[in-house]
Structure formats: C-alpha cells, structure tokens
Design a protein that fits this description.
Bound molecules: ligand T4K
Mean pLDDT: 94
Radius of gyration: 22 Å
Amino acid sequence: MAKERLEDLAAFGGLPAFAEPLHVGRPNVGDRKRFLERVEGMLDRRWFTNNGPLVIELEEKVASYLNVKHCILACNATIALQMTIRALGWKGEVIVPSFTFVATAHALAWQEVTPVFCDVNPRTHNIDPAEIERLITPKTTGIIGVHVWGRPCDVDSIGRIAERHDLSVIYDAAHAFACERANRKIGGFGNAEVFSFHATKFFNTFEGGAITTNSDALAERLRLIRNFGFVDADTVKALGINGKMSEVSAAMGLTLLEGLDQLLGTNQTNYEAYRRGLTGIPGLSLMEFEAENLNNRQYIVVEVDADAYGCDRDRLVEILHQENVRARRYFYPACHRMEPYVSRDPVPRRPLPATEHLTASLMTLPTGTAVGPNEIQTICRILRLARAGRHSLGNAPG
Ligand code: T4K
C-alpha cells in the first residue's frame, strides 16, 4: 500500500512538486551589503583571524545579548565542546543524552571521556534527570544536557543532581541561540553553554560556535586553550588547540545579529503556517513550545504516528524526497546505535525507550528565509495527499 502511494505521488505530471530541492538547514544570508562592507574592512586591515576586531566585537555583542559575563567564539561547536570538556578537566565517564547530534558524544570521545548514554523525556526530548541519577558511578565527572530544538533542559533538577554528586555541567546549546527559559536567555546555565553557529543554524557564521560562561577562571582557561595554549608570542602554558573563529565568520555573525528579530519573525511566521497546514491531518503532530520559554523555532519538528497516519516516518520522508522536499530524520539513528559506541557497548547501561521511539518517529521540515507560505502550503498539501493516497497532486483540491 505504501509503495503504491509512493508511485502515485511521483507520477503526478511526471514531475516532483518542487523543481529545486527544498532543504532543511538552508542558510540565512542577511544583509549582503553590510556583510560585504565588513569584509572590505577586514581585507583593508589585513587581519583575518586570531582575535581580530570583528571577533572581539561579536564576542561582546553576544555576551551582552545573552546577558552572560563571557563569550568565547570558536571555529565550530564540536571543537568548542571539546575545549570546554578539557578546560573542566573531565575524565572517566560523562552522562549525555543519546538523542542528540553525534557531535555531542564525539566531543567526549575525542577527549578520551566515555559517554554514558541517558534517556530523554518523551515530551520535552531533553535529558531525563531521573535517569541521570541512576547512571552516576564513582567514575562520573560531569553531565552534558542538550537543549534539543532550543527547548531548555530541566536546569534546576540537573543543577541539584550536579551539586549532590559534585559534578560540573555543560549545556550543549547548539540549537538554542536566542531561546529563553522563563524570561532568561539560554547562555548562563551550568558551568558553560556551547552554541553552534553552523551554516544550517538560523544564526550562522558559516562554521562557528561560542562558549558562554559566568566563570572568569573558566573563560581565561578557554581563551588559552583556543590559541594553542599561548600566553604571549613565545610562551605556551597549556595543551591548546586551534579553536579560533576567523574574521570573515565574525563579519557574518555581526550582520545576522543586526537582523536577528527579522529572522525570529520569519521562523515564527513559518511555524504558524505549518501549524495551520498540518491541522486536522491524523497521525502528524507539530511539536509545540511552552509559551513561557521563548523559542527560535529554527526546527519544524513533526512526529509521525504510523498507525494513525497510515505509513511510517521513513516512508513519508521518502515520499517527501520524491517531491523534492528534503525532510531530515534528526536525530536518527541515536548516538548509542552509531560507531564507535555501538561496537564498544552494544547494550546501553539502561534501556532508552523514549530515545528509540523519537528516533523512529520524528522528522524535520524546511524553514528559515529560504521558504515562505506558498512552499509551506504545498508541503502540507503533500502531507495531506500522502495520507489520503491520492493520485495526482496537480488535480487534487488542496
Ligand atoms: N550539538 C548539537 C546538538 C548539534 O545539533 C550540532 C550540530 C553540534 C553539537 C555540533 O555543531 P557544529 O560543530 O556543527 O558547529 C547538520 C549540521 O552540520 C550540524 O551543525 C547540526 N548540528 C546538525 C543538526 O545538522 P548534517 O550532517 O545534517 O549537515 P549537512 O551539511 O548535511 O546540512 C544539512 C542540509 O542543510 C543539507 O542537506 C543542505 C543544507 N545546507 C547545508 C549547508 C552546509 C545548505 O543548504 N547549505 C549549506 O551550506 O548536520
């Protein structure tokens, strides 16, 4: 039945619904003129990286926007996580959700720390504090909470657990730029938070990331580590790495920061268009956000109930791809099912039923400035027709 449906949809006029692929993660570009002016200035100064003036300006502006004492920009969030793990001196085991992008686990493994995979809350998709406590052993040195889709972790419970067991906490805030928890911006929770400014994030610096912290000592150590451990031209004081952000990346960041409200507005409008378009389709639920926690809505997350919808998430993603809608199965598979973790530890220490369920049933749909209400209407129409098993998109009423 699902196979027939797939063929039926593909057969519509012999063409997919969209002539060009519509991707999840299409970058926002911002004001080109402002960006190019900054790049001109950078070329004139001949200062391209290593704590240049644009990086310093962006660090100040991000710290002030997030209301946090320090912002240390980095070349990407994966290296930023590793720098933070090293700066906090983590060893042994660290508890981390398996329902995350694999970079979170890899950052630990690169630092020779064992990720111990924890289940998530099926409603919030964030690490489940009750499960964290069950995974703590004498080898545990820390906890990484991931603010999945920009929704804040249960920072109060995690903070209490960390205090009880004398652990430090990093929040992977890769998705959470401009998000809030009860009127407080994400950025100042835990010992440090790490943002991703990758091209696919609504606020991007091509590649890039940031560590934010209220600790002076940690910030100082992170700055040292970011530049090979140099304190001056001839003195190295620590095992550092090259974690620096380039000036051209900072130029992009400064430009997008100026237009941040507009980008948030676009995401909100797109989210509402999806909400309208998906209403009444049995088996598809658009992920909702709590009113008290401002969300950047950079991910449009839809849960597919295969029984109610009539086909499963994977088949539906195939149908969408045929129509040139490049929906993604974030996060699939879960980290504990990926290498090297699955070979090292084929059975997780505790079962991860919520993680297994989410990795099998969620998909993300395109948003950002690269799509508008018409595209979203068509995507929702495909989703409606795919369920109904209708033959021709071209002839079917909307
Ligand atoms: N922690 C979490 C929770 C994360 O989600 C991430 C990254 C990290 C840590 C690590 O952050 P970084 O080290 O990357 O700063 C993408 C991104 O590469 C990754 O940054 C992101 N999370 C993850 C959720 O998604 P892929 O493998 O799906 O990316 P990619 O390159 O296939 O791009 C996705 C789609 O975006 C493409 O199909 C097309 C579109 N795209 C992409 C790029 C790069 C464009 O249209 N233009 C572009 O320039 O991981």
